[in-house]
Every structure is written in structure tokens, then in C-alpha cells.
Design brief:
Helix 4 (about 70-85) crosses helix 5 (about 85-110). The protein has helices at about 5, 30-50, 55-70, 70-85, 85-110, 150-160, 175-185, 200-210, 220-230, 255-265, 285-300, 320-330, 360-365, 380-390, 405-410, 445-455, 480-490; strands spanning about 10-15, 25-30, 115, 125-135, 135-140, 165-170, 195, 215, 235-240, 245-250, 275-285, 335, 345, 345-350, 350-355, 370-375, 390-395, 395-400, 415-420, 435-440, 440, 455-465. The chain has 2 domains: about 5-240 and about 445-455, Aldehyde Dehydrogenase, Chain A, domain 1 (3-Layer(aba) Sandwich); about 245-430, 3-Layer(aba) Sandwich (Aldehyde Dehydrogenase, Chain A, domain 2), CATH 3.40.309. It is an alpha/beta fold. The chain has 17 helices and 22 strands. It has a 7-stranded mixed beta sheet, with helices on both faces. Helix content is about 45%, strand content about 20%. Bound molecules: nicotinamide-adenine-dinucleotide. Nicotinamide-adenine-dinucleotide binds near residues 143, 144, 150, 168 and 436. Nicotinamide-adenine-dinucleotide (NAD) binds near residues 171, 199, 204, 207 and 241.
């Protein structure tokens, strides 16, 4: 019996193409009872999966990857139809995702296999090792903006670390979840990756279920609810939340490159990117020239027709947030491209504003739409200070030809990932961990840290011979303690 048959048939979530509202597909809404049953199946799957060992899992994961790759176009079409993004963007999403899956599969053994650590002089009689073991069942809750890439950043690493995964996708774009689970069933079998489609209540049921870890990606507000609910069972979570990413431009920067990346980072995917560019701080001497270049490029973007470069807003209610922020920018600053009239139903043409006070809603809250604010600053240092004066800290970017200045700014930026002279440069580098600080969340997906995020650590100290000092026994003598007392200043008395 498949998951789709098991869930309550009368309650369905129907996805609609954001371009015209036409129905794409219907998926069952898993009830709390369904979720519990799915997690129980995944628990059995986890035992089988753990038994496969690193090499076995790698082979299975690469077979699954190959299945996905062979039908990549079908998957991209599904993503595009549910999110409204251009097919080319969806193809890129599949490609980035498979790069991570490949890395996780091929590096899990190297990163997680038991390794020896130095026991130290006093503990010469201990053989000390550290090993990483799977949690068991990981519940993955995903968003709609990158419905494949984002949750797969957790799923690939959780699976490679030896866990089974129950994947609860966003109700706006559950297609990839069901599709991935089907490919898994064909390529591997066993209930190791199962989808639990549904709505918010399904997500809440997954958090309350007998899972060993939750990997949540979505808004900060929902992360707080998830964390509070997970606390009931002391279930650990990794939280990948929203952002208000800043891009800093120094006086010596390549302004054409910076402008191109601002337009891509700010307007791509209609601005619905957690690490999208929402705030730009440009040094005053080049501010106006940069604004001219950004406006020139952004005004050329096509938002309708077959060759549209981004689609309509996926979440209808997000349009209201963008409208509020455009109003906020226009009331407190100056609009240099577009304005309230740029919002035509769910299609929003690029909006660029300048001189918007830092206290404005458009500068404080995540817009998640194609609005970019470019404010002048006196120096790169001030740009960093303004970038950091945000409750979010997901990604950031610096543009400068001065390598040291770029690295100094990167070091000072409060963010989980920084790119220098590009945007989103980290997204495809599988070895680089990804995650935020402050309200953007905690924990890491991707890279070695991403594999460890989905592992519990077990330390083993094996005594290989009797200790010279008999300290860890009730039979220790006064002489042993006396010797230990004399050793303390010898071992730790020096400050260097
Ligand atoms: P959302 O918070 O509305 O929903 C995310 C997921 O949580 C959905 O699957 C939803 O069904 C589920 N959910 C809702 N209420 C729940 C509850 N009480 N318990 C458990 N699950 C619940 O977010 P969204 O609108 O789908 O996604 C957009 C947000 O995601 C933006 O803020 C964006 O910045 C963020 N995001 C972050 C990253 C990242 O890696 N940091 C990546 C992509 C998106």
C-alpha cells in the first residue's frame, strides 16, 4: 500500500498554476493518524537503511540520483507548474539539487566514519574514538519557493547520514515530494523516504509524531511554533528561516557586475528567494552610477509571456506584503523604477527604491518580492554596520576589487554565508554548509556540517592498559591523590 492510498481520500489539497489558476494536481492531506502510521513505517525503514552501511547507502543514493536525473525534465515541469517559475529556473533547481545529493552520498563515509582522536598524555591508556550515528527518523518540512532544492538540502544529507526521512512539503508545491518518493520506491524500495502531503496541520502532526529530529525550512514565525511544539518531546530541530539579505558595494567595485547580480539576486524567482538581495548599501561616490545600471537592467526584465524571466507570485497573499513594502518605500524614500502600479494581480514588475530610512518596513521585514532598495553609505564599514542592524542574518554579499577589504567585510558580517563579487555563489558548492544566524535560524545543512547535523555523536574511550595513577577507582590511595595534586601545577600552571 502506498502513502497516497493510505491517507484520507476525502481530504485533498489541489495545487494550482499561479499563471492562470488552473489545477495541477491533487494530493491527500495526511491526518495526524496517517502521519503516525507513516512515521512508524519510516522507523522500520530506518532500521533497514542503517543496516546498509555507508557503502550500501551510497550505492542506493546514487541509483536514486540517476533515476531523478533521467527524468529531470518531468520534475522541472512539475516544479514550474506549481510554483509558476520559468522552466529554465526549475531545470537549474534540479541541477543544483543533484549536485548536493551526489556530494552527500559520496562524502558521508569520509565525514562520519568512526575516527581516532588524541587521548592526551595523562590518558595514554585510553584509545579514544568519535563516531557519528543516525538519529533514526527525520521529519523534513519544506517551503514552496524552491520546493525541491531547499528540502533536499536536508533530505540528501539526512539520508546519507543513515536516517529515514518523512517529507512534509508545502501545500503550495507538494509535487516534488510525491515525485521523489515515487522515484525512491522504484530505485531503492523500503520506507526510507516517504512523503506526507498535506497542510499546516500535517506539518504540526509531524512535529508531534515519534520523529527524532525536525528539519524545518520556512518563515521565522512558523519556526518558532515548530520549535515550541518540538520542545514537548525534546525533539531537536534545525531551522532554516527567512532573511533580509544585504549586498554591499565598495567604491572600487565592478559596477556592471554588481548591477547584474543585484538584478538577478533581487528579482530572480520574483524575489521569492530566502537569500535574495533585498537591501543594497553602496558607497556614495558610486551610488548614483550603480542605481542607473540597476534600473537599466531591471527595466528590461520580461515578466509575462513565454520568455518571461520570472513568474507570478506563488503565494497569493505575498502580493499584499510586497504592496505594503512598496508603499513603505515610496512614502519614506524615492522610487526610481516602478511603484504600486507595478503590481498587476500576481505579476509584479521590478521595483527599485533609494534613500529609504532603515526604520521603514521595507528595510526591516522580509519582502520576498521583486523590490530592491539601494541606500548610499559613507564607507564599506558603514555598509557592514547597516547590514548587521537587522534581526535577520542569512546571506550577504560584498562587491570590491580589494581582496582584503572584501574578506574583512565578510568576516564582520553577521550572516551564515557571504559571497564576494557574486550572489548565491555558495548555493551550488556542496562542501559549503548553509544556514543562518539570528532570526534566520540555526543549524546547518549542506557540507560536512550538514551531514553531522543529522547525526548523533558517540564517543568511545577503550582502556588499553592499567592507568599509572589509580584515580578512577574507590581503592585509590593517598599517594595517588598526592601525585595528582603535584601534577596539577606542572600540567596547567603555565599560561602558555
Ligand atoms: P511557512 O513558514 O508558511 O511554511 C513552511 C512549511 O511549514 C510548510 O510546509 C507549512 O505547511 C509548514 N507549517 C506551517 N505551519 C506549521 C506548523 N504549525 N507546524 C509545522 N509545520 C507548519 O513558509 P513558506 O511560506 O512555505 O516559505 C517561505 C519562507 O521560507 C520565507 O520566509 C523564506 O525566506 C523561507 N525560506 C528559507 C530558506 C532557508 O534555507 N533559510 C529556504 C527557503 C525558504
Amino acid at each position: 500500500m502506498t502513502l497516497m492510498e493510505q491517507a484520507s481520500p476525502q481530504t485533498q489539497v489541489t495545487t494550482r498554476n499561479p499563471h492562470d489558476g488552473s489545477p495541477v494536481a491533487s494530493y491527500p492531506v495526511a491526518t495526524p493518524g496517517d502521519v503516525d502510521a507513516i512515521v512508524a513505517r519510516a522507523r522500520a525503514g530506518a532500521r533497514w537503511w542503517n543496516g546498509q552501511g555507508f557503502d550500501g547507502r551510497k550505492a542506493h543514493l546514487l541509483r536514486w540520483k540517476s533515476r531523478i536525473a533521467q527524468q529531470a525534465d518531468e520534475l522541472a515541469t512539475l516544479i514550474a507548474s506549481e510554483t509558476g517559475k520559468p522552466h529554465g529556473d526549475a531545470v537549474l533547481e534540479v541541477m543544483l539539487t543533484l549536485g548536493h545529493l551526489d556530494w552527500a552520498a559520496k562524502n558521508a563515509k569520509r565525514v562520519l566514519k568512526r575516527r581516532k582522536v588524541k587521548a592526551g598524555l595523562i590518558n595514554y591508556n585510553q584509545h579514544a574514538t568519535v563516531g557519528y550515528e543516525p538519529y533514526g527518523v527525520v521529519g523534513v518540512i519544506g517551503p514552496w519557493n524552491y520546493p525541491l532544492y531547499t528540502p533536499m538540502g536536508s533530505i540528501s544529507y539526512a539520508l546519507a547520514a543513515g536516517n529515514a526521512v518523512v517529507f512534509k512539503p508545502s501545500e503550495l508545491a507538494p509535487g516534488p515530494a510525491a515525485w521523489l518518493a515515487e522515484r525512491w520506491a522504484e530505485a531503492v524500495g523500503h520506507d526510507v523516504l516517504v512523503a506526507a502531503t498535506g497542510d499546516r496541520a500535517t506539518g504540526a502532526a509531524l512535529v508531534a509524531a515519534d520523529v527524532d529530529k525536525i528539519a524545518f525550512t520556512g518563515s521565522t514565525a512558523t519556526a518558532k511554533k515548530v520549535m515550541a511544539a518540538a520542545a514537548e518531546r525534546l525533539t531537536p530541530i534545525v531551522a532554516e528561516c527567512g532573511g533580509k539579505d544585504a549586498l554591499l558595494v565598495a567604491a572600487d567595485a565592478d559596477l556592471d557586475a554588481a548591477a547584474s547580480f543585484i538584478v538577478f539576486g533581487g528579482m530572480g524567482n520574483a524575489g521569492q528567494t530566502c537569500v535574495g538581495v533585498e537591501r543594497v548599501y553602496a558607497v556614495s561616490s558610486i551610488h548614483d552610477a550603480l542605481v542607473t545600471k540597476v534600473v537599466e537592467r531591471a527595466s528590461r526584465l520580461r515578466t509575462t509571456g513565454d520568455d518571461a524571466q520570472y513568474g507570478p507570485m506563488t503565494l497569493p497573499t505575498q502580493v499584499d506584503v510586497v504592496r505594503r513594502h512598496v508603499d513603505s518605500a515610496s512614502e519614506s524614500g524615492t522610487l526610481v523604477l516602478g511603484g504600486p502600479a507595478s503590481i498587476d494581480g500576481r505579476v509584479i514588475s521590478p521595483v527599485v527604491a533609494v534613500d529609504v530610512p532603515e526604520s521603514a518596513e521595507a528595510m526591516q521585514e522580509e519582502t520576498f518580492g521583486p523590490l530592491v532598495v539601494i541606500n548610499p553609505v559613507a564607507s564599506l564599514d558603514e555598509a557592514v554596520d547597516r547590514a548587521n542592524a537587522s534581526r535577520y542574518g542569512l546571506g550577504a554579499a560584498v562587491f570590491t576589487k580589494d581582496r582584503r577589504a572584501g574578506e574583512r567585510a565578510a568576516a564582520r558580517l553577521q550572516a551564515g554565508a557571504v559571497t564576494i563579487n557574486s550572489v548565491l555563489g555558495f548555493a551550488g558548492v556542496a562542501a559549503l554548509p548553509f544556514g543562518g544566524v539570528k532570526d534566520s535560524g540555526f543549524g546547518r545543512i549542506h557540507g560536512a556540517d550538514g551531514l553531522r547535523e543529522f547525526s548523533t555523536v558517540k564517543s568511545i574511550a577503550r582502556q588499553t592498559r592499567k592507568a599509572a595513577l589509580n584515580l578512577l577507582t574507590m581503592d585509590r590511595s593517598e599517594k595517588d591523590i598526592h601525585t595528582a595534586a603535584k601534577m596539577i601545577p606542572m600540567l596547567h600552571g603555565r599560561s602558555k
